[in-house]
Amino acid sequence: MKILSSGTALHKGFSLAASIVPSSAMKQILQGVKLEVTNNLAELTATDLEVLVKYRLPTKACEGEGGIVLPASRTNNIFREWSGNEEISVLVEEGHCTLQSKGGQFKILGDDHLQFPKISKTDVTDFVEIDGEILGNMVEKVAYAVSSIKALSIYSGIAIKISGDTMIMVGSDMNRLAVVKRKIHNPGNVTMSGIAAVKCLTFLQRFVSECKGILKVGIGESQIHFIGEKGEVISQLIEGKYPNYEDVIPKNNDKKIEVNRNELLSIVRMASFVTNEEYRVIEFSLTQGKLTIFSTAANVGEASLEIDAQYDGPDYTNTFNPDYILDFLKASDSETITIELGEVNDAALFRTGHEEINVMMPVDWK
Amino acid sequence: MKRIIMHIDMNAFFASVEQQMNPSLRGKPIAVIGSNERTVVTTSSYEARAYGVKTGMTKYEAKRLCPHIMLVAGNTSRYTDTCRRLVKIYSRYTPIVEVYSVDEVFLDVTGSIPLFADAETIAKKIKQDIRKYFGRLTCSIGIAPSKLLAKLASDMKKPDGLVVIHEKDVRSLLENLPVQELWGIGSKLAEHLASLGINTCGELGRASVQRLKHKFGIIGERLILMGQGIDDSPVIPMEKESDAKSVGHSMTLEEDISDREDIERYVLQLSEMVGRRLRKEGYSGRTVSLTLRYSDFSTFTRRKTIGIHINDGINIYFVALDVLNAIKLCHPVRLIGVSVSNLHKNHFQTPLFPAERAKQQVVYAMDEINNRYGEFSITWGTLMNRYHHKGVISPAWRPKGVKCINLANQMGKKM
Which of B48, B46, B151 is nearest to B103 (CA)? Predict the structure, then answer.
């Protein structure tokens, strides 16, 4: 089996597939990327046993059929060095592969491609369509809020709900919540939902930047499946029931202000300069026409920063984790942010229109 | 003003406390061990040391050297209670008392000299008081112009020593003293210094700053000062101690285990213990470290930092589990430790979801019950009948507050 491809295409495709390969795996074969040619089509496959990616490699020529599992990191390094080369030839023979390009060649030992894990059939039956770029953008707007504790199961994933012409993504680490809604093409009017591993969705952001265009998305009993023009991503869903996030979105917060996102981002970030690991808190105060952010930390100092805000309600002061506010503001691309606050112990709501919201609880001082 | 620092090191502390409490042990070779089968000797009496019994030996090694040795399971509360009472004695002579560990303190007696004539008089009075109130307990006292030299002085005569290092004698004393005799220079650092041709404190004091900085970074300069006997570090009384940097627990298992479920159960137990102490002191943290020691005694620590501060056992366990799941176990496990760092104090992020808030309330309710009826009176079903952890002094024990001491980790330490 032999393929000819450009250095750029081979490097892009291989590094995309290699990015899902775990740095350490129980089986050596999982630290590789499968290259396979069938029906004159070259395909790269990689998996960490949770997420599987298939990528159709653009080639100039394909001869024969067969495959090999190439060591991901080593091979990727070679393709990176040759990414500017016009042409790379990949010749697969018994147990090894010869990579040849301008100025030299490598003989790389590989594993038997038939031993590589396969997903013969998914349990996904229905699909909707959404622009890949929009999907990647949705992931960005909720992924920051997801818990990094894998064993926390449901909170380590992003809940996806498809209903009518809307797709909703929800992320939470138990203390805050990020929700984003976007329109989709759902000709079959299907309803489906599931909790996708954050690793799958952040990989998908990279996938859609390489495979632009419309993406088909389907959720089954235990899997989520994305199909693009150049490849597909399949991932196991996280088992469990996501808590009813709508219940915790405040509906009666009576203190509302609208502020410029960049101005708010700037003062919260500056206030966070005088916090430290022990005192990672900022004070958020609303007075007539003004929003003031105050921070102080022992052995560090204090900061008081303010911006104009259209507010004529009662004075309000509460304390929040600045990282929570910064995460939301950084992920947002809106010019203005609406903040809705209730009583001192109530959750605060940050929103940009009705499509992106962030709910966070205040910090409680004992 | 020249400082006068005193270092007091209780001799064979745990063993002496046991002999004091139990007259039948007096004058006999005894070794204090942890409560489980495979624990190591944490302290031995001087009678046992005469047979070559040392801290860190397994009880079988101790028995081989001294067949009639009496093994006594350590009793944490006895030692911490004795330490508290000892601190009260020291406080009669100076308010500046730093409890370095359960059996070692530093005293800054500079301001006390006008009241008590001289430092030697204070030291003798302290020894008399200890003898009066504790009978068999003895201590070695070092007096010097710095903590470094006071510690060196107390190590020079054991048991029941009193050594004074005067400023005028420092240079000649250090000239030929091996570097590893200095507090803070362990065998590994001594090896590195030896590779540079530095074996004695005299050679260390004369070494090139640039050369040592190049080899050891910023501590290079400090090493040279140590070689010259210079140490300006203050005696920090308990009330001025900075907040804890981490809170942790570890335990040597009753037998080496390989089964992952068993390991996970121990991790859960340790996580619960750590969470309990974090909450007691008002801390929460976002870095969880898991320490494993294999049957061949090789030990390693892996950690994970998360975005939120946590202090409940279950969440600590979940993070520790993430760490454990990323480790390929090569040998059976002998010791497991869990600790939480990157701490902050007295502020808590309220959970957003009602179910999580309810879980938090359950944890607080369990704390109340355990406060009233004793540790692990109420716990997870998985941990029923599993709480046997008496041989270890709370890793962050202090007469007030917290500081880390773990019997299992005191191997190699002379007591």
Answer: B151
* CATH topology classification for B170-227: DNA polymerase; domain 1 (1.10.150)
A11, β-bridge pairs? none
Contacts of B15 (CB under 8 A, 6+ apart): B30, B31, B32, B43, B44, B45, B48, B72, B415
Do the chains contact at B347 and A148, CB–CB below 8 Å?
A: no
- Give the domain extent around A156: 128-245
What is the CATH T-level fold of the domain B242-346, as seen in this structure? Dna Ligase; domain 1 (3.30.1490)
> In the prediction, which pLDDT does B395 show?
42
Tell me the chain B residues in contact with residue A362 when contact means C-beta distances shorter than 8 Å.
350
Count of CA atoms in the C-beta half-sphere (13 A) of A365: 11
Residues A110 and A135 in one domain: no
Instruction: Provide the CATH number for the domain around residue A338.
Output: 3.10.150.10
**Run of H or E residues at A139:** helix A132-143
Residues A179 and A275 in one domain: no
C-alpha angle with apex B385: B384 to B391, nearest 5 degrees? 120
Q: Cα–Cα distance between A341 and A250 in angstroms, integer?
A: 9
Closest residue in B to A323 (Cα) is: B307
Residues A141 and A217 in one domain: yes
Q: How many CB atoms lie within 10 A of CB B309?
A: 25
Task: Report yes or no: B211 and B196 within 8 Å, Cβ to Cβ.
Answer: yes
The closest alpha carbon to A46, from A67, A62, A32, A66, belongs to A32
Band (pLDDT 50/70/90 cuts) for residue A233 is very high
Q: Do B350 and A247 touch (CB under 8 A)?
A: no
Assigned token pair, A32: 């590789």
pTM over 0.80: no
What is d(CA A138, CA A182) in angstroms, rounded to the nearest whole number?
8
A and B: number of Cβ contacts within 8 A:
84
Residue B41: pLDDT band with limits 50, 70, 90? confident
Task: Name the region of B90 (left: φ>0; alpha: ψ -120 to 50; beta: rest).
Answer: alpha
- Do A175 and B345 count as a contact with CB atoms less than 8 A apart? no
Total of domains in chain A: 3
**Is the residue at A82 inside a domain?**
yes
CA atoms within 13 A on the CB side of B64: 6
Condensed to tens digits (0 to 9), the pLDDT of residues B275-292 reads 999 998 888 998 999 999
ipTM value, please give it.
0.78
Q: Which of A7-21, A67-81, A143-157, A177-191 has the lowest mean pLDDT?
A: A143-157
Rounded distance between C-alpha atoms, residue B130 and residue B118, angstroms: 19
Mind telling me how many Å the CA of B168 is from chain A's nearest CA?
38
Map residue B401 onto helix, strand or coil: coil
Residues of B within 8 A of A26 (CB-CB) are 328
